[in-house]
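lol ok so funny story. i was supposed to be doing the assay writeup but got distracted and ended up predicting the structure for this chain instead. priorities right. anyway since i did it might as well share w the group, maybe its usefull for someone
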Amino acid sequence: MNHLFSLIGNTPLVDLSSLQSNPKIKLLGKLEGQNPGGSVKDRAAFSMIQGMLSRGELTEGKRLLEATSGNTGIAIAMIAASLHLPVTLIMPDNSTGERVKTMQAYGAEVILTPADRTIEYSRELAQEMEDGGGYVQVNQFSNEDNWKAHYRTTGPEIWRDTEGKITHFVSSMGTTGTITGTGRYLHEQSPGVQIVGVQPTDGSSIPGIRRWSPEFVPAIYDERQVDQKIDVSEDEAVAMSARLARECGVFAGTSSGGATAAALRLAEGLDQALIVCIICDRGDRYLSTL
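and the output, tada:
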């Protein structure tokens, strides 16, 4: 029988090439919703908490603490429940009810902050609480074990499953752990692989995709691993999520729609390619917004 943690990773690739018309371009989506917690963040959360345990950072009487927009919090709550660790999660109050209830179902305490102050205020509050004592932050934005999870797992899986034929990797940019770690691994295998980051257009609000103000850019972000950035609008991301469900049978969230939209725009300028984009979670945690 498999332990819960052994089910994290080794997610499948699904062919999404039918979304575009060039027969010489293959578009594959990596279905991270197949992880036990339902998103790509299971990889990073497991890696970060294991690192904290090995370094002795989770001493008796301390609660895990994290500011999150959703998927990381769910992953942390799932892993903390399995390890019997207390956890408090802080998130903007415009986060979907599905996300909040899922975290609470795992036993996490959830603190909601004003949406108009964004996730950046949630991060500030988490720091204040840690400074006050009794808490230790997972700190996905500066924890090196975040990107290392993808260097050890996501990148090698993609290289293996495409038989080294991948030409472009597309990922939404939030905490930037996925693109930094996967990009580093793929660049080491073949410097010619293009790593493409996806950001929201000005004024767009897309869960899981961020355009950070300079003082809040995640410390783990490595600009050298990103060869190109593509901006997508909220409307594009939502529309592409609907297309994925209705045309490909892939029910995913809006950040996945954003990544797929960016991948298709990228494909328009290419004659031949094998593009892999991250389908980072499942769509069921967005139903209340449809």
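The chain has a mean pLDDT of 95. Residues 154 and 161 are 11 Å apart (CA to CA).
back to the writeup now i swear
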